[in-house]
Write a structure and sequence with these properties.
Two copies of one chain form a homodimer. The first copy, chain A, is α/β, with parallel strands linked by helices and 291 residues long. Chain A folds into two domains: 5-163, Rossmann fold, CATH 3.40.50; 170-290, Orthogonal Bundle (N-(1-d-carboxylethyl)-l-norvaline Dehydrogenase, domain 2). Helices cover 52% and strands 13% of the residues of chain A. Chain A is built from 13 helices and nine strands. In chain A, the strands form two sheets. Chain A has a six-stranded parallel sheet, sandwiched between helices. Chain A has a three-stranded mixed sheet with strand order 7-8-9. In chain A, strand 8 (134-139), helix 7 (142-152) and strand 9 (156-163) form a beta-alpha-beta unit. The radius of gyration of chain A is 20 Å and the shape is globular. The relative contact order of chain A is 0.10. The interface between A and B is large, with 68 and 68 residues.
């Protein structure tokens, strides 16, 4: 008998992750703030919970993957929230990207209820979520990870235990800072050479013949050239992750000069966007919003 | 009968490039500010010129690759400089990294003497220079590039004609801005997660499992972890290239916020360095110079 999974958060990442759990045969109970996003999963056999606490009450393993720290606090702690319904001996896995501090507070609340907890944010994008190829960055105890593995293995291919609770979030924030800065680096270089009269395609060609090449840029550069930014990793979420990284840096008194600079650029593009673009839309800082 | 090559500048890049020309059988006349750096080439059959003008006077093709704009101006225009000795009908190839503006001034001076000119800075590092695998970013006329190819092919594998004179330098500055920002991005992410208690090796492991991976970081990250920075691309030269990129950006009124921020970081590390480290020594900003 497979354990019952509660799953909260059916966004760009959560939905394909839940689909993989369902395909693997886990009894699945889902909840999402926008209920219609569960329709496809319900047709495929998932049950719909009326509120987060209902998904938690029946779950052997509860997985949360929501957009930001306030969203996680809401699904856990507001009225009919999940935390008060989690059963002793159950397991909570949070794959949202939130602050390490919030991850530690969740861990503490779980400890009080005799619930195991992993912070386990992911990398690999929507493609990785669909293919079950995600990499999980995990904070928690190794016994807890061992217990979680049969579930995680339906969604990912790598499970890196990085330290105690919070460690997964720390590394995730570092990784997203890196990704944000890589795309910003290419955007600045492209802005410079095109302003000097070089066709953007030529810059990409040189980059791809050089040590500057990167898988991320191979994916994003063609979109940046076209000025098309369908959201694979929405800019609003990357903006939030860089903000969390900078907040952590300030707590730790670590200077991140380029991180701060890029954050202002992402902020300006976010504030003037009328759509919900991918974070590679940072290119608009040079092609649209700057004057 | 192969054309005679004059070669000025026997640094980390120039020396292996000149060795490849010599191996390919080109008569070679070399000059370097520090004369002993020519010893190995002279033993292998190159002739030593007493001053830049002597290397230029006998050359069918003169190649210059020196450290910065003032060094190029000196070898071309100071007393016994190369420019006044270049013969009508000869070809000058400058593979230094200098400003596009200087490249255009050299082109103009060459035009007046009926000398062909290419700005042709390179990417590929010392490894590429040794293996004859460099990528040349070329500004100039296609007929001139066609004429230069038999010579360039002994040193490189790709010759990208990017526009009129100056275009090679524009793209080179954009590329080095990208490389400088990529290494800085990794340094900031690493500084953040290690300050939060994550071992640096784990961050590298996660990066290499992710879209954040890049060939440049695969090479530099292990050195940054060890705190060892043998100069493959010296920080003082990267600092100069970022400065040139920012100067070009200001002329063109292009904002490069992360570029400006990273430049200040590279500057601080350069100013406090007691050695001549690789540009990946930017990591010292967090491990040594910051307080």
């Amino acid at each position: 008998m497979k354990p019952t999974i509660g799953f909260i958060g059916l966004g760009l990442m959560g939905k394909p992750m839940a689909q993989n759990l369902l395909r693997a045969g886990f009894p699945l109970l889902v909840w999402n703030r926008t209920a219609w996003k569960a329709d496809e999963l319900v047709r495929a056999g998932a049950k719909l919970a009326a509120y987060p606490g209902e998904a938690a009450a029946q779950a052997d393993v509860l997985i949360t993957i929501v957009s930001d720290p306030p969203a996680l606090e809401q699904v856990l702690w507001r009225e009919h929230g999940a935390m008060e319904s989690l059963r002793a001996g159950s397991l909570l896995i949070d794959s949202s990207t939130v602050s390490p501090d919030l991850a530690r507070r969740v861990a503490e609340a779980c400890r009080k209820r005799d619930v195991d907890f992993l912070d386990a944010p992911v990398t690999g994008g929507t493609w990785g979520a669909e293919k079950g190829e995600l990499v999980f960055m995990v904070g928690g105890r190794s016994e807890t990870l061992a217990r979680a593995k049969p579930v995680l293995e339906t969604m990912g291919r790598k499970f890196l235990l990085l330290g105690p609770n919070g460690a997964g979030q720390i590394v995730k924030l570092g990784m997203n800072l890196l990704l944000a800065l890589e795309v910003n680096a290419f955007a600045e270089a492209l802005a410079l050479v095109t302003a000097a009269g070089i066709p953007a395609e030529r810059m990409v060609e040189v980059m791809q013949s050089s040590m500057g090449r990167a898988p991320l840029l191979d994916v994003k550069a063609p979109l940046m050239l076209k000025g098309e930014f369908p959201a694979s990793f929405p800019l609003r979420l990357m903006h939030k992750d860089v903000r969390l990284a900078l907040e952590l840096a300030r707590e730790l008194r670590v200077a991140l000069p380029a991180g701060e600079a890029a954050f202002r650029t992402y902020s300006q593009v976010r504030d003037s966007a009328k759509d919900d673009p991918d974070f590679s839309a940072i290119m608009r800082f040079w092609t649209e919003t700057a004057s």
